[in-house]
Amino acid sequence: MDDLLSFAASIAATSLQITSPQHQEDTFVPQPGVARYWYLPTMLRIAQAIHSMLIHYALLLWYDRELKFVRTVIFTVEEINRDTKLLPNVSLGYRLFNGCGSENILRAAIEAISREDSKGCSSQIQALLGHSSSGMSKDINTILSPLSIPQVSHLSTCACLSDKRQYPTFFRTVPSDQFQIIGLVQLMKYFDWRWVGIIYSEELYSETGTAEFTKEAKKEGICVEYRLPFSESSQILSKLDTIVETLRKSSSKVVLLFMSLSYTKSFLSEMEHFNITGKQWLGSESWITQADLSSVERKNILQGAMGFALPQASIPGLGEFLLSLKPSDEPQSAVIKGIWEKFFDCSFSPSNTSALCTGTEDLRTVSSDYTDVTHFRAENNVYKAVYLVAYALHILLQCKNGSNPTTRKPCVNKKEVHPKLVLEHIEYVNFTTQNGAKVFFDENGDSVAQYDLVNWQMKGDGSVEIVTIGQYDTSFPDGKKFKLKDNTKMVWGGNSNEVPRSVCREPCPPGTRKAMNKFKPVCCFDCFECPEGTISNQTNSPDCLICPTEFWPNEKKDKCLPKPIEYLSYKEIMGAVLTGFGCVGVFLSLFTSIIFLTHKQTPIVKANNSELSFLLLFSLKLCFLCSLTFIGRPSEWSCMLRHTAFGITFVLCISCVLGKTIVVLMAFRATLPGSNVMKWFGPAQQRLSVLTFTLIQVVICVLWLTISPPFPKMNMKYYKEKIILECALGSAVGFWAVLSYIGLLAVLCFILAFLARKLPDSFNEAKLITFSMLIFCAVWIAFIPAYVSSPGKFTVAVEIFAILASSFGLLVCIFFPKCYIIAFRPERNSKKHLIAKIPPRTF
Prior knowledge:
Layout: E1 3-10, H1 53-82, E2 90-97, H2 102-114, E3 128-129, H3 134-144, E4 151-153, E5 170-172, H4 177-190, E6 195-201, H5 204-219, E7 223-230, H6 236-249, E8 254-258, H7 261-271, E9 280-283, H8 299-302, E10 306-309, H9 318-323, H10 334-344, E11 346-347, E12 355-356, H11 378-396, H12 419-426, E13 430-432, E14 438-440, E15 450-458, E16 464-473, E17 482-484, E18 512-515, E19 526-529, E20 534-535, E21 545-546, E22 551-553, E23 560-562, E24 565-566, H13 573-598, H14 603-606, H15 610-628, H16 636-670, H17 683-707, E25 711-715, E26 723-728, H18 732-755, H19 766-789, H20 793-824, H21 831-836
Parallel strand pairs: 1-2, 1-3, 3-4, 4-5, 6-7, 6-8, 8-9, 9-10, 11-12, 24-26
Antiparallel strand pairs: 10-15, 13-14, 15-16, 16-17, 18-19, 20-21, 22-23, 25-26
Helix pairs in contact: 1-10, 1-11, 2-3, 4-5, 11-12, 13-15, 13-20, 15-16, 15-20, 16-17, 16-18, 17-18, 18-19, 19-20
C-alpha cells in the first residue's frame, strides 16, 4: 500500500467584504482507485448562510477563476501520482479550504494544520498552498511560521513577503512585485514617461506595491504627480470624485492602476460613467490579462492599456480536464452548482425566470475565465507550486548508501517525514516541469521573474485582444532584461497614433542648463540659457561648459566653434580701398618722377635741388609701398618688415625734406655780399646729411629687432567672440623710439621751413615745405590717440591712413605746384621769369 503524504490547498480569494459564513465541508464523491487512500474534502459552500441571491451571485463572479486554480491542483496531483519516477511508492493527497474573508481563511488555516482524518487519526499536512491574496498569505504565514510549515503561494506578489525574518516559511512560484515594479519603471523609462499618476486600492498588495514603485521610480528620475487611494468603503463616492477631478486636471498622461482584480472590477464599473479620455493606462499583473474586464463602455479607458503579465504557458491535458467538469462530479458542492447556473443561465431548482439545469451542458460553449484554456498564466504557477512540494519530498526521500546524496545527511524514512524537513529541502529544489517551466528560489524565497508585456487592443464590439508586445526576464543581464518584439503593432491610450508624451517639463535642449526648483518635484525643473561664452551639448545638462580660449559658442550654444580670426585683408572693402590709395600714391610719385626727369634741364627743376627732389620722390614711393605691408595676414617676417620699413622710409623722406629746407636757408645766405656758406652745404654735404639721419633710424630699428622684435599675436581680450590677429610691438620702447625720431626730424624741418617761408629766393620751397610739414605733424599727432583707441584691425587701418595721408601731403604740397607750372604754365618755367620775381635787396 502506498504511503499518503497530504498537503492543504487554500486557493480561493475575494476582497468582497461580507459576513463570513460558518466553515463547513462535505466529502467528495470518491474517485475510483484512490478513494481508499485519500481524504478529499470538497470546496466549501461559500454562500450557504447568505440569503440574498444578489450577493450570492456577486461572490460567484470572483470564484470561477479560483475554481480553475482548484481544478489545476487536482489535475497536477493526479499527474504526479501517475509518475513512477518522481515519488515512487508515495501518493500525494490534499485538502481544499475556502478563503472567503479573513476570519474564514484563518479558521481554515488552523483547521488545515490540526485536522484529523475520518478514522480520528491525525493527518498532518506537509505544506500549504495559497493564498491568492498577499494580505491573507501574510496572516496565514504568521500562523504557520512557528510550526515550520512551508507555505507556497501562486499569486501573492507583495514584495513585503520576501522578508525572511518575518515570513521564514513563505515561498512563491509567482514573481515578487519588486520585479514587476522594476519592470514598470524600465517600461516608463523606455518610453520616456517621466510624469505619472497612480491609483491604488487600500489593501496590502496595492499599498506596498505603490510605495515600492514610488521609491524605484525616483531612482530613475520618474516623478509621481499624484497617488490616489480607492476603496469600497462608505467613502467611495467622495474618493471617486477626487479621482475623477484629478484625472481631468492632471498634466500627466500616464496612469498606473495598481490594484487587485476585485478592486479593479469595482473601479472600472464606477469609472465607465465618466468620460475620462486621453490617458495611457498601465496595469499590474493582477488584472492586465483579464479580458472579461472589457466592454463597450470601458473602451475609452482600456484602449491601449499596457502592463506586465505572467508569461503564457502550455500545460498538456489541463484544458481537457477543466472542460470535463460536471456538477455530478461534486454533487455536494454549492460552489460548482452556483457557477454552473451562472455559466448557462439556468437553475437546478424549479424557477419561473430561468431554465432547469440538466448538469450535462457543455462547458466548451461558454466564454469565461474558467473556460479559456488556450493558454495558462496564473494556472502555471499553481502547477509549479504542486510540483514544488513533490520535488521537495523527492529530494527529502532520496537515499544512497545510507545518506541523502543532496544534503549528505542520514536517510529519512517515509513515516518520519514532517513539515520542517520539507521546509528545509525546498531550498534545494531546482527542477523543470513537464511543460518546461524552471523552478528554483533565491535567498528570499522568490522565483525567477518572467513577464510578458501585453497591450489591450479593443475592437468595435467592446471585445479585446490582449497582444504580447514584449518580454521582461530578470535572468538576462542588465540592459537586455526588457525587450520589445519587432514589427509588433501597438495601440496607445487616447486613440493616439504616437507614443504619448508624459513629462512635467520638456527636457532642456542643448544650449541650456537644467536647474532644480526646490518647490517642485525633480521632474518639474527649470531651463536657463547658457551664459555668454558657455555651451551645453547634451539634453538636460546640469551645467554649462566654458569654451576653450580659441573657441566661441555658436548661436544655439550647443557647440564650440573656432573663433573667426580677424585681420585687415586685401579681400575686404577697407583693405582694398587702402591698397588702392597706396597704389595711386606710388603711381603719382612715379608719374611725378617721370615729369621731373623729362624736364630736368628746365629752370624750375634745377632751381629746387633736383637731386634731393628725385631722392624724395623715391622715398615717397617707398612710403606708399610700405603701407601695403600692413595689409594681409600678419606673419613673423611681415611684422618685422612693416614697422622697420615704415620707420626707415619715413626718416629718408623727412631727411630729404630737411635737406631741401636747409638748402633754401643756405641759398639765401649765399646771396649776401661776401658770403661763402654754400661751400659748407654743397651736394656732398646734402647727401651725407640724408645718409646720417637715415642711418640713425636704421640703428634704432636694428636694436629693436635684436632685443625684442615685433611678432604676430592673437589678441583674444578685445573681443570675446573673435580673435584679432595683429603684430605685437615686442618692445614698446623700440616702437616709440622710431616714431619719436621721425617726429623730431619732422618738427625740426617744420621750424626751419617756417623760418624760411618769406625768404626772397627764386622758387622758394619753404612755404610748401612748411605747409606739408604742418599736415605731416597734424596727421601723426592725431594718429597717436586714434591708434591707441582703435579696436582690432582698425588699429592697422589708422596706421596705414596716417602713412598715406602724410605721404600724400608731402607729394601734393611739394611737387604738384611745380608739375602744374611744367605742364600748364610753361612760360613761367624760364630763367627770365624767375629773375623777374626777385625783388631788389638793400643792405
